[in-house]
Design brief:
The complex is a heterodimer. By secondary structure, chain A is an alpha+beta fold. Helices cover 37% and strands 30% of the residues of chain A. The longest helix of chain A has 32 residues, at 65-96. In chain B, strand 8 and strand 9 form a beta hairpin. The chains are: A alpha+beta, B alpha+beta.
């Protein structure tokens, strides 16, 4: 290395250190260690955490009978259609071959098949309109399995709503909270076809399945929450937060006796605090008791005695 | 007429003696019931209206509570000014009446105005309350309670429900304010999600709670023979009772407990207390207007003594010495009584040395307590208390009272010694008394005129100092009457058959020497007059060079420390500061107790937020002035070591005076009116910045405190309507959550416990959760707060001030007193250059205005008094020369006092000023009597000659010396104890009088005779 070229980076380094030091010194609040103990000023290192923020929702257990009946009616309609189609084809063949089936009987068989087809179509439409396309388009095997589970009580259909529909569209699963504290996970089947006028919520239909009989009776209302995406960041406890000047800030220790105020800009609410996604890092010593004292020190009022 | 009075008293001497004994006995007995206080009632008649408005911000309080109340009282009869402060949750309107207004009538006027406005205040705002009428000193007693056994709620319960009613029942107690502990409340903590799941809203829950705890009467059943009462009682006493109550609805029944947790918890508080460094409960008692501080204190202490035995069993420790203003009264009274007793002994000794007869001593002596006791009785009859000022007036009058006693007795004794066999004793006494009666009356009236300007002072100064003048003038006049009636009668009774000893040989020799000195001075009068004149002029000039202080530092051994952190600081942080500061203060030797009261308490006189505290620090008794000063310096050091606090250290009395002064105490005050809050704030900042550049405009401040953090919620009416919500639904729900709506109350015996509907603390404590608050409209629609309102972090006003019903922002500056007028002019010009927003205008006031007004008033009255004095002297002597002679003695008489002030480095204080008044009184009296005596002798001898003046002077030596010695020795103990508690006014006064008596006596014995010889008669030459 050519030593003569060191002066530039060295100068730059000195400049950066100096300006940083200036910045730190200019904004630092200094309180001695002894006084910190007397005033109960405590710091704590920040830790990284993953937090999922879920929107509050409400789930109502639906009576599966109408759906099961519809499924059953549709199966019957399908079978009826098959039968009618078979009969129409047979009568058409017999009529064509000059057998003893009259044209009238042939046409009647054809119409019966048409009626059966319309009935099946109508039932499909009803299922789609009343339960949503996700339910309506289920294949036979899926239907059979779900119906069996519903009948055995090992599954339950729920309608999930949120105020103004917040958070309903972004989730695939919903966590249900029972009265005894137990939680169940429900799979979202799709949007509901009618709104909850109280919540002004479009609603979604979800299905919960377990290997046991579920304590979910029709009409039961449960609290629910989405299983939102996990966010990472450093967790700042609420005791560290200071609300001043329309902003949220914390005090971070820059030395044993010096602290600097740090305004939070990128955060989201978490239980008992905030998840800060930028601006602070794990290991930063943040003041968790006494932030108001530091702020009061940093903004002296006139007329000090 | 005067002669007839004296004659009557001589004829009925026995009756006069009985009457004297009775009056003295009655006087001593009355001392037990006389109202004692620290200060006279100097606070102008005012009424403070406090209105609790839970949950409202300062701006909301100003708009919907303060303004209507101001309008209801502004303009009422006798109102001088109305000012107000609106803070979070509280409106304080102070109505100040004219100085001559009756405080009870003033309160009635306010109450009448409030009666109309109360019904118009919004729901949730409590009824306005007029604070109790308290004395100027206000504080009666502060008692603290701590406990290791009871929890804060139990401790607070005991103080609030057991002790407070007992203490309020003591006559003389106006108010009992409780700080600290925890106020019990039953919280119905709603689960917003369960409410929403059950399609219920906060309103439903509140109504259900109200319905569950209703208290109603049952009427009665009338039979033919009886009327039987129907007495239903509420089953709801405990939280579980409330939880089991139903929420009325058409769908399936839901109990309160299904959607909420019901439990006993702490109500949110606005204040707290730290007792001797530990959390505790403080009860602060205020005394009623006109009550006897000492008497009321003793009764309260009796009540505390009644409950004291139970405290140990309860595990409560009582700290009763936290603040006791009666200590100062007791110390002052004890000190003055001790000093008076010692002084009385010394007086008796001097009287005996001069008069050499115990009976004459007794006659002289009796008139002193008689005059003072009669004065006290009359002052009490006039409705005045015995306080620092009236005691000061009595102490000042002592010189005149003693003088009256000495002059009359000495003259009577001298005439009795000279009595011829043909003269009767009553005749001689009558003649001796009348001989000096005229001059004494004129002299007394002149001395009374000197203090008349003080009596006529108005405003705060008048309320403070007029009692001193009243006590002095009253004592002086009573002493005159006693000298005219009692003294001759007692002289007749005790001396008619007594062989009076001759004058002491020492005294005779002194008079001979004095006579020779006078002859020399008559030969060379200018050798005495010129130096005396020069010294007098220098002394008078020196008076203007001394620093002056209106009131001395009172050594009551109690300090009030005020500490304020940034607005928005919580109670917990203030408590943390308080515990640490208390421990440090208690470590200072000489500090006995420390208590801290944080924030405010309902109905209390202090209306602060949780960021502000007041510490009361009591010192151990009997500390010297120097030790107290050392402790005060250490207190400053402790407070300065704590960062983030704005602090102030005052004595208790200094704090009371400061609180009672109307408006600002800054030297220059700029009030900015008109426009809205934002415009005024901006203008205030601009003005403050501009006047900071004006030379000598120091300590520029904006009075309005910094803003406090807030969460602004602005309802969007359209969005709310979309969800079937009204703005009221939204705002009521917000208030319920964050202020805790008091839905109902539960009565347990004599205790009332609020039931409040609120939300879990996880929601309450998190500003972020505000947005997610679920609301339910009347139609059942649910919405989040964020869907119907904008929610944002912001700042709002901590306090909103009004003056005369107008929003006001205030900028102050504190130039040096000598620069106030110049700086005011420069500031006005600077502000004039600024462009003010439309509608905004500025008013200036300065303490110089008040000082100038008071000074001009005093000067005018003093001028009138001087004219009165000259008129009286003219009436007395009918000679301009005599008038000038008497007046010319005043300056030299003051020389000694001026020297004493210069040597002691003291300020020209109130005590020193009244000392000068006494000196003038004594000098004037001596001068009048000497001039008159010389005139009388000249008439008797038929000529004006040197011999006449010499004889007149010789015959006045004894009373002049006696007055000087008796007054001086009588005040000696006060002078020695100067600086001690209770002698703050009397001590400097005694020093000035002691030193001044020396020059006054020289003037009376040496300079004045030379002046009389040189100038009294027109044909007198310098040659004897």
């Amino acid at each position: 290395m050519n030593a003569s070229n060191l002066h530039r980076p060295l100068f730059l380094l000195l400049f950066l250190v100096f300006t940083h030091a200036q910045q730190v010194c200019a904004d630092d609040v200094k309180i001695g260690v002894d006084m910190q103990k007397r005033l109960g000023i405590v710091t704590m290192p920040l830790e990284e955490r993953q937090v999922s923020h879920s929107s509050p929702m409400f789930a109502t257990v639906l009576d599966p009978s109408p759906l099961v009946t519809l499924f059953s009616d549709r199966r019957i309609a399908r079978l009826t259609l098959v039968n009618a189609r078979t009969e129409a084809a047979r009568t058409k063949s017999l009529n064509k071959n000059g057998n003893a089936i009259s044209t009238k009987d042939m046409e009647a068989a054809g119409l019966t098949a048409a009626v059966a087809r319309e009935r099946l179509l109508s039932l499909n439409q009803r299922i789609m309109l009343e339960w949503g396309p996700a339910v309506g388009k289920m294949d036979e095997a899926e239907q059979t399995r779900i119906v069996a589970a519903l009948v055995d009580g090992k599954a339950a259909l729920l309608r999930v709503d949120a105020s103004a529909g917040h958070g309903l569209t972004e989730t695939e699963f919903v966590r249900l909270r029972l009265a005894d504290g137990e939680t169940l996970e429900a799979r979202v089947l799709g949007p509901a076809r009618s709104a909850d006028t109280y919540l002004q919520s479009a609603g979604i239909i979800a299905l919960v399945e377990q290997d046991r009989v579920l304590p979910l009776s029709a009409g039961l209302m449960l609290n629910a929450a989405t299983k939102a995406e996990q966010q990472r960041g450093v967790f700042v406890p609420e005791t560290a937060l200071l609300y001043m000047g329309g902003q949220i800030s914390v005090y971070v220790a820059t030395g044993q006796e010096s602290f600097v105020q740090h305004i939070l800009t990128n955060y989201q609410p978490a239980a008992d605090g905030l998840l800060v996604k930028a601006g602070l890092k794990a290991g930063d010593l943040v003041v968790t008791s006494g932030a108001a004292i530091l702020y009061s020190t940093a903004t002296p009022q006139e007329g000090e005695d | 007429m005067l002669e007839a009075i004296v004659s009557f008293c001589l004829r009925k001497a026995g009756l006069v003696l009985i009457a004297t004994v009775v009056v003295i006995a009655a006087g001593f007995l009355s001392l037990r019931t006389v109202p004692y206080d620290v200060f006279p009632d100097f606070v102008p008649a005012q009424a403070v209206v406090q209105t609790e408005a839970p949950g409202l911000s300062a701006t909301q309080v100003e708009q919907i509570v303060t303004r209507p109340i101001e309008q209801s009282v502004n303009g009422a009869a006798g109102v001088q000014s109305v000012r107000s402060e609106s803070i979070q949750g509280l409106s304080i309107v102070t109505v100040v009446f004219n100085s001559d207004a009756d405080p009870f009538r003033a309160r009635q006027v306010v109450a009448e105005g409030l009666g109309e406005v109360t019904s118009a205040l919004p729901k949730g705002v409590k009824a306005p309350k007029v604070s109790p009428l308290t004395s100027s000193t206000m504080d009666l007693l502060k008692v603290g309670f701590t406990s290791e056994k009871l929890n804060p709620a139990e401790l607070r319960d005991w103080v609030q429900w057991e002790l407070k009613p007992r203490l309020l029942s003591v006559p003389g107690v106006a108010r009992a304010t409780v700080y600290g502990g925890v106020v019990r409340r039953i919280n119905v903590i709603a689960d917003p999600e369960k409410l929403a799941a059950n399609q219920l809203g906060f309103n439903d829950l509140i109504k259900a709670v109200q319905a569950s705890a209703v208290v109603s009467g049952g009427g009665f059943v009338d039979t033919t023979e009886q009327r039987i009462l129907v007495e239903p009682s509420s089953p709801v006493k405990r939280p579980q009772d409330i939880a089991s109550a139903l929420i009325p609805r058409m769908a399936k029944p839901v109990r309160i407990g299904d959607v909420a947790t019901v439990e006993e918890a702490a109500a949110p508080d606005f204040g707290d207390a730290v007792i001797m460094g530990k959390p505790g409960v403080l009860i602060s008692l205020s005394s009623q207007y006109g009550s006897n501080t000492l008497d009321t204190t003793y009764r309260v202490e009796e009540a505390l003594a009644e409950v004291a035995p139970a405290l140990a069993g309860l595990g409560i420790e009582m700290h009763s010495g936290l603040h006791r203003p009666a200590n100062f009264v007791e110390t002052a009274l004890r000190g003055i009584v001790e000093d008076l007793l010692i002084g009385a002994l010394l007086i008796a000794l001097i009287l005996f040395l001069f008069l050499r007869n115990l009976r004459t001593v007794l006659v002289s002596f009796v008139s002193i307590p008689l005059s003072l006791l009669l004065t006290v009785m009359l002052l009490t009859k006039f409705g005045m208390s015995i306080n620092t000022m009236t005691l000061g007036g009595l102490a000042v009058a002592l010189g005149v009272v003693v003088d009256d006693a000495v002059i009359d007795v000495e003259n009577i004794v001298r005439r009795l010694r000279q009595r011829g066999p043909e003269e009767s004793v009553p005749g001689v006494i009558l003649h001796a008394s009348m001989e000096i009666r005229g001059p004494v009356i004129y002299a007394t009236l002149i001395v009374a005129l000197v203090l008349l300007p003080v009596l006529m002072m108005t405003g705060l100064q008048g309320a403070f100092f007029a009692p001193l003048a009243t006590a002095f003038i009253l004592a002086t006049l009573i002493s005159l009457v006693v000298a005219m009636t009692v003294t001759p009668a007692l002289c007749y009774l005790f001396l008619r058959n007594t062989a009076l000893p001759n004058e002491a040989g020492t005294l005779s020799r002194f008079k001979d020497w004095h006579g020779k000195l006078l002859q020399y001075s008559f030969r060379f009068p200018w050798r005495f007059i010129v130096p005396a004149g020069l010294i007098s002029m220098l002394s008078v000039g020196a008076l203007f060079l001394f620093n002056s202080e209106l009131l001395p530092a009172f050594r009551e051994g109690h300090y009030v420390l005020q500490a304020a952190a940034h607005p928005g600081t919580s109670l917990a942080v203030s408590r943390q500061y308080g515990s640490a500061i208390s421990r440090d203060l208690l470590d200072i030797p000489g500090v006995a107790t420390v208590e801290q009261q944080i924030g405010r308490s309902e109905g209390g006189e202090d209306t602060w937020g949780p960021e502000k505290s007041e510490f009361h620090l009591e010192l151990t008794p009997n500390l010297s002035a120097q030790k107290q000063d050392e402790i005060e310096a250490q207190i400053h050091n402790v407070l300065d070591s704590y960062p983030g606090l704005q602090t102030e250290v005052l004595t208790f009395l200094g704090d009371r005076i400061g609180e009672s002064l109307t408006g600002e105490t800054a030297a220059l005050v700029i009030n900015i009116y008109g426009g809205d809050s934002a415009a005024l704030e901006k203008t205030a900042s601009a003005i403050a910045a501009r006047i900071s550049t004006v030379p000598d405009a120091t300590d520029v401040k904006i009075k309005t405190p910094p803003k406090t953090p807030s969460i602004q919620i602005t309802v969007n009416p359209d969005a709310a309507a979309f969800y079937g919500l009204t703005p009221t639904d939204v705002l009521d729900a917000v208030q319920s959550v964050y202020a805790g709506s008091t839905a109902a109350q539960v009565f347990r015996g004599d205790r009332v416990i609020d039931i409040a509907v609120t939300v879990p603390s996880s929601i309450q404590k998190s500003p972020e959760s505000v947005r997610d608050l679920l609301l339910r409209g009347a139609s059942g629609t649910l919405a989040r707060l964020e869907d119907v309102a904008s929610v944002s972090l912001s700042e709002s006003s901590t306090s909103v001030f009004h003056s005369g019903g107008r929003l006001v922002f205030t900028v102050t500056a504190n130039p040096e007193p000598q620069n106030v007028a110049i700086v005011t002019g420069a500031v006005q010009r600077a502000v004039h250059e600024l462009t003010l927003p439309p509608g905004v205008y500025v008013e200036y006031s300065s303490i110089a205005d008040d000082a100038v007004r008071a000074r001009n008033e005093l000067l005018l009255h003093s001028l009138l008094a001087f004219v009165g004095i000259v008129a009286l002297l003219s009436l007395a002597f009918n000679s301009n020369r005599a008038v000038l002679l008497v007046i010319s003695t005043a300056p030299f008489a003051l020389v000694g006092g001026v020297v004493a002030i210069a040597l002691s480095g003291a300020n020209l204080s109130l005590g020193a000023l009244v000392g000068f008044v006494t000196l003038f009184g004594i000098a004037a009296r001596n001068a009048i009597l000497l001039v008159d005596h010389a005139d009388q002798l000249a008439v008797e001898k038929g000529e004006w000659s040197l011999a006449v003046v010499l004889v007149a002077a010789r015959e006045r030596v004894t009373p002049i010396l006696m007055t000087a010695l008796v007054t001086g020795l009588g005040l000696l103990p006060l002078a020695i104890e100067t600086g001690q508690a209770g002698r703050e006014i009397q001590g400097p006064m005694a020093i000035v009088i002691l030193a001044g008596l020396a020059s006054s006596t020289v003037m009376s014995l040496l300079i004045l005779p030379a002046l009389i010889w040189r100038f009294r008669q027109a044909h007198t030459s310098s040659k004897p």
